[in-house]
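FYI - complex with KG4, inputs then prediction.
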Amino acid sequence: MLILGIETSCDETGVALYDSERGLLADALFSQIDLHRIYGGVVPELASRDHVKRMIPLVREVFERAGVPHGEVDGVAYTAGPGLVGALLVGGAFARALSFAWGVPALGVHHMEGHLLAPMLEERPPAFPFVALLVSGGHTQLVEVTGIGEYRLLGESLDDAAGEAFDKTAKLMGLRYPGGPEIARLAEQGTPGRFLFPRPMTDRPGLDFSFSGLKTFTLNTWQACVAEGDDSEQTRADIALAFEQAVVETLTIKCRRALKATGLKRLVIAGGVSANRRLRQSLEKMAAGLNGELFYARPQFCTDNGAMIAYAGCRRLMAGQQDEGGLSPRARWPL
Ligand code: KG4
Ligand code: ZN
């Protein structure tokens, strides 16, 4: 089954062709980061307008790169939520129109299921069952996964998502959007041990997270340094490192707990923050200590992309699912 996947939940237009026999045939992405950067975050209206502009050229591009005649697919999958409603409407309306014109089924896919299954696109995909840590700009969740669509929520953030904490922390120190990669880059120059940040909610049982206090802690630390006349690049780097270490260690402690609580050996990380090198190293070490294994996608499939939507859509369309009735994007949608 050959599926066209379309992702437009936020500020990335992603399009891909995935074939159940041959794997990923082509994927193309347009990132709107430069468009939103001057505003310090995503402007929903601008995001929707830009998705409209990019859609047709990107769809053309994947068919041409895959060497597949336009429209010769067995279905169209698109992100139906969660995300920005205007942005979701663009991808959804376009996908539904294509499915209507080509006479093939369409299916709205859950964005976080896309992320969750992205590591399946790699050479060494994880086998079910596994524990998944979903860490993106909008979500931080620990999920027990026993199959496609078989998800049990083990814990989640009670306030900010991990990626959101990276973005907000970066912003308050005057760094560019998106903050995750900026903090990670800056942290490379950080002095270990200069600052020690808390590991929120690790001193009590449970698998929930809270990252908003960490952001406030960073703000207070940064402001205290600035008040003393120290707003140097080195101090920014030292704070970035302390922040990153705190997030990474907190996530590692909870993942370890989740593996122990479920008795599972495989840990999958997905979503934008799973591109973080320090997080991967820390989880790799922790998993090895439990005789377990860590799985993740290549960096460009950790952040938003069309390939993960094509893949998730393909698995579900093959199982006989398809859209019935009208188009209804969902800003919020539990996994
Ligand atoms: O999955 P994603 O592309 O979009 C959402 O579904 O939200 O995740 C974007 C998030 C942003 O908050 C970004 O700062 C974060 O992922 N991110 C990172 C890194 N790369 C992206 N955070 C930490 N380290 C990174 N290397
Ligand atoms: Zn995402």
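Residues 111, 115, 136, 271, 304 surround zinc ion (ligand 2) (CB under 6 Å). Strands lie at 2-7, 12-19, 23-31, 75-81, 106-110, 130-135, 140-147, 150-156, 266-270, 293-296.
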